[in-house]
Fold this sequence. Notes:
8-stranded mixed sheet, D-Amino Acid Oxidase, Chain A, domain 2, 6-stranded mixed sheet, Ubiquitin-like (UB roll), alpha+beta, FAD/NAD(P)-binding domain, binds flavin-adenine dinucleotide
Amino acid sequence: xxxxxxxxxxxxxxxxxxxxxxxxxxxxxxxxxxxxxxxxxxxxxxxxxxxxxxxxxxxxxxxxxxxxxxxxxxxxxxxxxxxxxxxxxxxxxxxxxxxxxxxxxxxxxxxxxxxxxxxxxxxxxxxxxxxxxxxxxxxxxxxxxxxxxxxxxxxxxxxxxxxxxxxxxxxxxxxxxxxxxxxxxxxxxxxxxxxxxxxxxxxxxxxxxxxxxxxxxxxxxxxxxxxxxxxxxxxxxxxxxxxxxxxxxxxxxxxxxxxxxxxxxxxxxxxxxxxxxxxxxxxxxxxxxxxxxxxxxxxxxxxxxxxxxxxxxxxxxxxxxxxxxxxxxxxxxxxxxxxxxxxxxxxxxxxxxxxxxxxxxxxxxxxxxxxxxxxxxxxxxxxxxxxxxxxxxxxxxxxxxxxxxxxxxxxxxxxxxxxxxxxxxxx
Length: 427
Ligand SMILES: Cc1cc2nc3c(=O)[nH]c(=O)nc-3n(C[C@H](O)[C@H](O)[C@H](O)COP(=O)(O)OP(=O)(O)OC[C@H]3O[C@@H](n4cnc5c(N)ncnc54)[C@H](O)[C@@H]3O)c2cc1C
């Protein structure tokens, strides 16, 4: 089977490698590999500290991707003999003042509802763990399950892995897309059995109506120094994060700017990031500032990735927003509800075409009807794809009522009987 992948970011490369592993003959097309958001990204693998109220279904996917990272990194390293830079280091969420502390306390309660580990630390306890922190820091959370990887290294290793599996790369822009062919900006046309669009925020320009847009993020990079007191943990303040790599590089980020496809670096952003970082870690004075860069996150209206096949038969994997590096390890597809229109965000896998991968499927009964799901689907995924409303929904699995707070963490198995009750408004 011949497959064309548009876009050589972390998602396009992971898709290409996985497909080539399964025997597909893959070609990636990209006009500018250096434009990938992962060239700028900090590489936090942070399902827990990224958790947001109301994004429970996404939390389940994020956790699944995080669980896959150690194996994904080991598999990549084995494939090409180069370590992609995954570090199981845990993360410190830091409260600079009483407001931050109250916010982190609320987060800890929310995380507790999902059984996720987040240990509250006093100011003294957090400084003992991370002596680089400012004396004014008021406490925080120790989150042992949030780790990091070096995204630039991941891109390089994925490129080597793909090359080893015979993936061809063509330096050109895709200007037209069909289910079995693409048109290039050099007037060539390439044909294949399947086309997968992984062009990040630019995917919206290739598939009209795809709700994905760029959200700019600026970051700073500091070089290693023996003379400054630099942090040794991943630190997350409420307005800034600092990620220290094993080679001593520190990445400080990031702004969130809704300004279209603009990657200008600005004085204001640098000043704010330095200020915020300084207030958490005051020992920066001697550190060399080696890079200021800006990248574009592919964002969607509900913050969830779009992994789907268009009505015309083109496969899409984009919209990974602030978690695309995390999602690089892959996650399973939940079958979408028949009749859900293209353009709505649908959870899925990073290898998006069912026909392109071996997929193990389980059969469950939903309100008495047989429904097929991907093995590993969660209850939250099922709700997402089968229920239009999110309020007034009660669910039982095998006659046991499952509270909403446990939907994301409830995996479904072959033969499960699910009853979904929805309350109607009015009357
Ligand atoms: C400042 C910042 C910090 C971040 N931090 C983190 C983090 O800590 N953890 C995390 O998990 N994620 C993070 N992210 C998010 C993550 O980097 C992205 O979600 C992810 O890299 C998106 O990957 P992608 O392959 O979908 O898209 P992209 O990386 O945007 O890649 C798309 C590729 O498509 C190519 N392309 C564009 N148009 C065309 C065309 N017409 N034809 C062919 N190719 C085309 C581009 O040249 C590019 O190479 C961060 C992002 C930013 C900007």
